[in-house]
Design a protein that fits this description.
Aminopeptidase, about 35% strand, about 190 residues, 8 strands, binds coenzyme A, 6 helices, single chain, alpha+beta
């Protein structure tokens, strides 16, 4: 049985599971050049996107969402449950990784920040995760702004750590938040 943390409504947006009629809108901006400039996974095959997004609700580790503003798909949010390579007995299913892409036609309207906040709420309040991280190219100022506004804590600046097909080796920043930090902020 799915334990999807969606739907969730906040900041004037509806965060929900994807359905077939969302796919064309997601495909219309996922491979935009301004998006791919900042993504580790650059071009995504449109059929693969359809398959991945429509099988999301069957996958026990993927809780990505569509961001809907008054019936229009304006962004996609990524929320994966990930396991570290720990020692025997290492707890599983406790950590999350978030990400987001806003349709460039509606960028700069606060949708990225609202999506990061919703992903954190889904991860901590919905899925009961312990720790959530997010990574970005260090020069992705918009994404870094989003992560800081969402209240995440910078943990790492890794020098020339990330390979990008077009840009070569890039610096990467990583942000994190623990459930107790989330609870202290929201209580
Ligand atoms: C990063 C992204 C999600 C931001 O979404 P958004 O809806 O535009 O974000 P917000 O409006 O909430 O906030 C972005 C802030 O960064 C600012 N910003 C954007 N580009 C900037 C730049 N090049 N330099 C400085 N600030 C910048 C915006 O002006 C805004 O701040 P403001 O509200 O003070 O004006 C969106 O640009 C995107 O999808 N980019 C491509 C994919 C991507 O990078 N995803 C993240 C991968 S880690």
């Amino acid at each position: 049985m799915s334990r999807s943390p969606w739907p969730l409504q906040q900041d004037g947006l509806l965060f929900r599971d994807p359905v077939e009629s969302d796919i064309a809108a997601l495909q219309s901006f996922r491979n935009d050049a301004s998006v791919n400039h900042f993504m580790v996974h650059t071009h995504v095959d449109p059929d693969e996107l359809r398959r991945d997004w429509l099988s999301m609700t069957d996958n026990p580790t993927e809780y990505s969402c569509v961001v809907d503003r008054d019936g229009d798909v304006v962004a996609m949010g990524f929320l994966d449950v990930v396991d570290g390579s720990g020692q025997p007995g290492h707890p599983t299913g406790t950590d999350g990784l978030i990400g987001y892409i806003v349709d460039p036609r509606v960028a700069g309207q606060g949708i990225g920040t609202a999506t990061a906040r919703a992903l954190l709420r889904a991860a901590f309040d919905g899925l009961g995760l312990r720790r959530v991280t997010a990574g970005a190219n260090a020069d992705n100022i918009a994404s870094v702004t989003v992560l800081e506004r969402a209240g995440m804590r910078k943990e790492r600046h890794a020098v020339r750590a990330l390979w990008h097909r077009e840009l070569g080796w890039l610096d990467e920043v990583e942000y994190a938040l623990l459930d107790e930090e989330w609870r202290a902020r929201t209580s």
